[in-house]
Amino acid sequence: MELQHDAALILIDQQKGILHPRLGPRNNPEAELRMLELLVFWRGTARPVIHVHHLSRSPDSVFWPGQSGVEVQPRFAPLAGERLVEKQVPDAFCGTTLEADLRSAGIGQLVIVGVATNNSVESTARTAGNLGFDTWVAEDACFTFDKADYFGNARSAAEVHGMSLANLHGEYATVGSVKQILQAGE
User: Fold this and answer.
1) Least confident range of 56-60, 134-138, 175-179
2) Omega into 116 within 30° of 0, i.e. cis?
3) Do residues 79 and 4 make contact, with C-beta atoms less than 8 angstroms apart?
4) Whole-number Å distance between alpha carbons of 172 and 77
5) Which ranges of the chain does DSSP label H, i.e. alpha helix?
6) Which of 10, 170, 169 is nearest to 96 (CA)?
7) 8-184 — its CATH code?
8) What pLDDT is stored for residue 133 in this prediction?
9) What is the mean pLDDT of residues 158-163?
10) Per the database record, which ranges form the Isochorismatase-like domain (predicted)?
């Protein structure tokens, strides 16, 4: 693994709504600390940072516009010069200018972090890989929630997270830890 000098960090859905208790039990309680580690490194090395925020089309969503859940968590607030992409579906490429912006900037490598692993992270990483980007997902800088599978079997957030990462690794993305990514950038 070699981290390019212009690799973009894509930080997905770090808005207040993702902390709402109604979303249920989650895994990876230190995910935000790992995200912040990467964000500090990216900013310190002047690599591009792209914040992705969800503006839901569903009134019962924690990301419905006009209520506090849609607001960014202050610790993840974009700085001047950092790009903000607003999406209405899980995939950050769908209905946005993300691909065109990355291509016009000559960026070919992406590191994706955020929430939820099996939703916006997986969806965005699949598209990035399919579009030919060298895509990495930081497994310890993502998290998700308990979810029943298609057959109604309860699955823990850790199981959902692990299966989602397995879906991505080797086909759409390279999955690794924050430590591995930071070492690749030294």
Assistant:
1) 56-60
2) yes
3) no
4) 28
5) 31-44, 98-104, 122-130, 157-168, 178-184
6) 10
7) 3.40.50.850
8) 98
9) 98
10) 7-152
DSSP code, position 118: I
Give the list of residues 6+ apart from residue 134 with CB closer than 8 angstroms, or none. Answer: 4, 108, 109, 110, 174
DSSP codes of every residue in 20-58: -GGG--BS-TTHHHHHHHHHHHHHHTT--EEEEEE--SS
Residues in the chain: 186
Question: Given the structure tokens 């925020």, which residue do they identify?
Answer: 53
Instruction: Tell me the mean pLDDT in the region 54-73.
Output: 91
152-174 residues labelled b (16+ CB within 10 A) or e (exposed):
eeebebebbbbbbbebbeeebbb
State how far the Cα of 72 lies from the Cα of 79, in Å rounded to an integer.
12
Sketch the domain layout of the chain as residue ranges.
8-184
| Cα distance from N-terminal residue to C-terminal residue, the chain | 11
Q: Is pLDDT above 90 for 59?
A: no
